[in-house]
Amino acid sequence: MAGEIDGLGCAATAHGIAAGNFSALESVDAALDRIAARDHRIGAFLTTHAEAARARAHQIDDDPELRSLPLAGVPIALKDNLCVRGEATTAGSRMLLGYRPPYSATVVDRLRDAGAIVIGKTNMDEFAMGSSNENSAFGPTVNPWDRTRVPGGSSGGSAAAIAGGMVPGALGSDTGGSIRQPAALCGVVGLKPTYGRVSRHGLIAFASSLDQIGPLTRSVEDAALLLTAIAGDDVNDSTTARDDVPAFHEQLDADPADFTIGVPEAWLADGVDPRVAAAVRGTLVELESAGARLQPIELPRERYGVPTYYVIATATAASMSRSSRRCTRAPARRASAPKSSAACCSARSCCRRATKTPTTVAPNACARCCATTSPPPSSGWT
Fold first, then answer.
1. Which of 136, 178, 199, 208 is the catalytic position?
2. pLDDT tens across 232-243, in order?
3. What is the number of domains present in the chain?
């Protein structure tokens, strides 16, 4: 039975379960077997949720209504910056070892409502700050097509899990290319939705004004199916759009002749690998042959794109980090601090003028700025 399930995408897996060709439990067991057999060479997964996944599969198999859901019994992997209630969530960092969120991300709840089964958490660059998946505290992920090469990042674990045939679908997060770039490097489909289309509630943020959660799959149909499940307004994220969510997977038969595709020719000139340029041009020929209209375009300000991204992304990340560390200063207490001390708080950097050998102080005390301080304010992670 495992051989029959291997290689199926999200839509085909759900259809097979609904039709009674195999059970949700068999789907889960097949995915866990593939992970156990393949992932020791790839490093895509940080954890698997075998017990919880099998328990959910039993529920689906025992309930005809659950078996009719659009993603019934489909094993889905999650990038490890997405919170799952009670399950280890590290964002690729040892700083979060032992952290088990008391709630699940909105996208996780919506996947479960659609019948999907969370099979495990995937490796990533620490706090999503990287583009090669070499910067995880738990070791790198390699590209399943060539293990001497990187899978891209920071959602490289999710992309490698798909390319390695371990799961039919996964979620990643994209701040400046972290879904799209590993999807390209691993030869899978990756989609960054428009900002606000998908709730960020429960995503450990890199830069909240840029972050988006999106699917990685083997086919466009499966990506559309996952997007339909996770998109929509959310009371827990004020930036989500209130627009209705169409059934994206039912809109894939549009006539290519209805589309005009802008082609930024400058992007295919200097600095582009000739093989990449050839692949892109080959795709453009296919689109034109199918009836689409190609329109050359210019983007005169595109040279500012990357510098602007780095300003916004790093400033946002730094401001969140700083707000989580700073001391809350209490002017009324400052007078009681020992005047002769040049000690700096051992846990924070709120005192800028410390001696070379600062005096050790209590965790919530800073002898230079204030006698005692309150704990640092919340970091504001979304």
1. 178
2. 999 999 999 999
3. 3
